[in-house]
Amino acid sequence: MAIRQRFASLNESVRLRGDAAHHEQTDAWSNRDLIPLPPSRRTWGWFNFFGFWSIASLNLANWQTPNTYLTQGLSVRQAMLVIVVGRMLIAMFSTLIAWAGLKWHIGFTVQNRYSWGLRASYIPLLQRILLNFIWNAVQCWNGGRLCAVCITAIWPSFARIENTFGPDMPTTTYEFVGFVVFWFLSTPFLWLRPEKFKIPFLIVCTWCSVGMLAWMIWALTVAKGVGPLWKTGQQIPAGSSWSSSWLIMAGINQSVGSLAAGITNGSDFSRYASARRHYVIGTITSCLITGILVSLIGLVTAAAAQKIYGEIYWNPPDLLMVMMDSGNGSSKARAGVFFLSAGFAFTAMFENICGNAIAGGIDLAGLFPRYIDIRRGAIITFLAAWIVQPWQLINRATTFISVLSSFSVFLAPMMGIMACDYYILRKRRVRLSHLYRTDDSIYYFWKGINWRTIPAWICGWAPTIGGLIVTVRMDPSPPRPLVQLYYMAFLIGFFISATVFYVLNLTFPVPDMDQNDDVDVYGTFTAAEARRIGVIPLSDDTSPAEYSFKIAQPHSAMDFVLVFAQPTAADKFAGKLLLAPAGICSSMLGIARIRTHGICGRGVSEAQEDDHDLQFPRGSVLGQNFATNAKDM
């Protein structure tokens, strides 16, 4: 008994607490970070989204992107064409997938519930959690390399630190110390809520952008121009089986696929927008300006450095170390290297925190909403880096990393299903209250599973999985059709899954797909939003009143809540009463439960305000007419 009591006490102590006054409840499907965001938490403007997407561009991978395409044999012009087209597609798909978050203020975790079903939504959720764990660890390792450069700029002798690891450890003390420093410096920011990231975004983006521009200007000034790299022409081998057109297609697919994970969970952050246009403006401008310019600056800097040092250095940490060595360790050289490497490091830090730790926190909250919120989930994701051991993955599991890098093969079909379901089948309407309960939810489908999504998703990646396998295995003579399909994997997966899902829903239709709630039970919408959507708003000037009543023909006792929305001139909802189970709505609305006897239908009933005499129309309650007096509480 004592053990059971201790366990119950421990369970109670770690459970999250709801806040009924703010329409927040904690149960098996919801907590503060999963329910639709209220207006008070939607504070991001267009410049905040510009910074958010800029952080995803101001990184080592985007800096080195031209190298990938030049290595494949494309010219500089063709490589930049791939980057421009890729960024345009990224902006388009990002806005497309994130729109549900902009309108309904829900994240990826909840967004999947109306497509996959409440329980089947764990399928995309678990995949995202796996990616978050792995990429968080890898990003921490890459950020650690930049921290090691920063430490070397302060104490040059650190570069010669003795390696205390044995031959079985696939890393050095130098690299491992950088990883530890990066991990510990990142940890305090996990306590920040996403709505508080606006100032860090501004600081980091300004720092890294100025640093990159200064680096390019310095390189061009010292070199007095660019090296031969800038004039690289098409270098496809004569006997190659791939034309430039196919290589460009492969590059575009790779460009979009590299950000597929961030596009998929775009609603996790779009829901913080204070207005829909802010997300659209910030996303498009960042993708088309920052995303393209960073790759161009990386190309120009590498070409100028080639003229200075006689070699091509695509990896910024390597080039920074060469700059410091060529400066003979002077204070000016070390200061410049520290400024640049610190800018890259902090950008990598916030990209990792937002893209992996916070996203992982939201996804884990979807699995265990009673115990995990964004903050706890982000901490768990970050702690998992020590279990994943990125030094092992990067140095000994390159095939596994290659598979994860190509995971867009599986994510693009998910996006196709999400887009088809939301825009075509549901006509951009979602019943929010049904996303957080299983009883009588229209999103419960069959045992919590919308079986239509599973074959649609499989059909999306089945044609391209063969190309992924032969590419990762680096087969010397892979079947050409498999590779061709793989070179178009993102678009193929997206449109095939969308088409199959649409056909399955036409053949096996789901009723009531284009419904939304009659009342804003979470206090999510502003008055203007509520009018556009067609729901009764719950705001300061439309506060709910409470009534208790007893129906004439008794049945089993049930808790009900009667919510009276005060009429306003704008919505003309004069005298309407909303009836809903108290167990569902009372904690959301922050009002007391009301005990009533009888089984009532949930609907809208007319009432006279003076004597509170309720008239239930025929069919609304057990198909009969009822009348009862309501006593104002």
From TrEMBL:
This is NCS1 nucleoside transporter family protein-like protein. Pfam families: Transp_cyt_pur. It is a multi-pass membrane protein. PANTHER family: ALLANTOIN PERMEASE (PTHR30618:SF4), NCS1 FAMILY PURINE/PYRIMIDINE TRANSPORTER (PTHR30618). GO terms for molecular function: nucleobase transmembrane transporter activity. One of its GO terms (cellular component) is plasma membrane. It comes from the Eukaryota. The chain crosses the membrane at residues 43-61, 81-102, 143-161, 173-192, 199-220, 246-267, 279-305, 337-365, 377-394, 400-425, 454-473, 485-504. It is found in: Membrane. InterPro entries: Pur-cyt_permease, Uracil/uridine/allantoin_perm. Belongs to the purine-cytosine permease (2.A.39) family. CDD domains: SLC-NCS1sbd_NRT1-like. Its main location: membrane. Keywords: Membrane, Transmembrane, Transmembrane helix.
